[in-house]
Amino acid sequence: MKIMANFEVSRRIQSDRAMDSHAVRDFIKEKLGNTSKFTVSSETNTNMVLEGRVKESVFTPMTKFEANVEVRVENDKARISIRGKSSPNWVFWVFFLVGLFTGIFLLIALVLFFVQRNKPKETFEGILGALETEFGKF
Q1: Does residue 103 lie in a domain region?
Q2: Range of the domain at 81
Q3: H/E element, 92
Q4: For position 102, what pLDDT does the model report?
Q5: Residue 98 lies in a domain
Q6: In whole angstroms, how far apart are CA 98 and each of 3, 4, 78, 87, 117?
Q7: Cα 64 to Cα 22, 47, 52, 90, distances in angstroms
Q8: What is the pLDDT of residue 87?
Q9: What CATH number does residue 36 fall under?
Q10: For residue range 17-50, what is the model confidence (pLDDT) as tens digits?
Q11: Which of 43, 52, 60, 134 has the most CB atoms around its CB within 10 Å?
C-alpha cells in the first residue's frame, strides 16, 4: 500500500509585461492561503518550501503536504515548477490507532485519506492556472 503521493506540476508563462519572481511567489502564497493552511519553511530568491494541509469543506483533512516551489523569471517569461508530496497527518494516525480497536475509524481514516491525497496537486494546478490567467499573454 502506497501511503505517500508524490506530485509535480509545472507551467511556462509568457506575459505582456515584465514579471519578477517575488510577485509570482506572493501570488502563489495568496491563492494558496485561500484554500490551505500552510507555512513557508524556507524562501530564497528562486525557491520556497511550503508545508501545510488543504482545507476540506466537509471532513477534517487527513493529509498534509510539503512542496518545493521553484520560480525562474527572465523579463516577460516565467517558469514555475512545483514538486511535492502528500502524506497522512496526525488526524489520520489518531483515527488509524482508534480504528485498530473499533474498526469503523480505521475504514473512515483510509477512505478519507485516499480521497484527499491528490488534493494538494489539484490545488497547485488550480493556482498555476490562475497565475497564467493573471500574468499570461493574451
Answers
A1: yes
A2: 5-128
A3: helix 90-102
A4: 84
A5: yes
A6: 18, 21, 47, 19, 21
A7: 25, 20, 6, 9
A8: 93
A9: 3.30.530
A10: 778 888 889 999 999 999 999 999 999 988 999 9
A11: 52
71 in a structural domain: yes
| CB contact at 8 A, 63 and 117 | yes
Q: How many domains does the chain have?
A: 1
Report how far apart, in Å, the C-alpha atoms of 105 and of each of 14, 39, 53 are. Answer: 48, 29, 21
Is 50 within a domain? yes
CA-nearest of 84, 79, 80 to 66 is 84
List the one residue out of 4, 136, 5, 16 whose CA is nearest residue 80. Answer: 136
pLDDT in tens, 87-135: 999 989 998 899 888 888 889 888 989 889 899 999 999 999 999 888 8
Please enumerate in sequence order all residues whose Cβ is within 8 A of that of 8, keeping only pairs 6 or more positions apart, or say none: 81, 82, 83, 84
